[in-house]
Amino acid sequence: MLRKALLLFAMTAGLALVIVAGVLNHRERARAAQLRQQTRVDLVPGNAPPIVDPASPDIDESLRGKPAPNFTLVSLDGKKVSLADFKGHPLVLNFWATYCDPCKVEMPWLQQFSQKYAAQGFDVVGVDYDAEVGKPTIAKATQQLGVTYPILLSDSKIEDAYLANNGLLPISFWVDKDGKVVNITAGLEGKTFNDAKNNLETQVKQTIAN
Strand order in 181-186's β-sheet? Predict the structure, then answer.
């Protein structure tokens, strides 16, 4: 009887440790990503001119020029969405998180461009990196930003395929109509917000032109 009780206790303790480790891993990943982003971009409050670092040399370029890895993720409205659904369309795959302030600067611009260049087949697909915060929190953030393009919930497979050696947010993978990654950008590129927006639109045009 005592042996069974000890065995049950050991199994329960082991399960608890696994659960706690999983929770801590999620928290640490989010904290590390946020810290890396804070060291990359300094957004100045008020009316002071924002200073934004140029593109980082630390971006992993290994996917450039290669077919974009396929994926199937669940969207905020519960639908399964695959990269194959956008076949023949130039697009940007934009990774973001609810805690990422630069992401929230960039996303309304992407919304504008998704509408402005829709007639040319251009699509924007957002992938939320901190899906553990829950759909209501993510949906509230996108509504506040006025975003209507698809928002997908990240998983370990897409993170391994696209973010294995990239820890910066936002990060975008620009995919041409043939499904090839033609460019990878991270952060807000430019000395001011206007510069960053213009540079982002240039990426849209170049992706469509490929």
Answer: 80-82, 72-75, 151-153, 123-128, 91-96, 171-175, 181-186
DSSP state of 45: P
pLDDT of amino acid 151: 97
Contact status, residue 124 vs residue 110, Cβ threshold 8 Å: yes
What residues does each domain of the chain span?
1-210
Model pTM above 0.90: no
Which residues in the chain come in under a pLDDT of 70?
1-58
Q: What is the CATH number of domain 1-210?
A: 3.40.30.10
For the record, the structure tokens of 113 come out as: 């461009």
Cβ pair 43, 196 in contact under 8 A = no
- Per the CB < 8 A criterion, the answer to whether 154 and 131 are in contact is yes
- The SS3 of residue 13 is helix
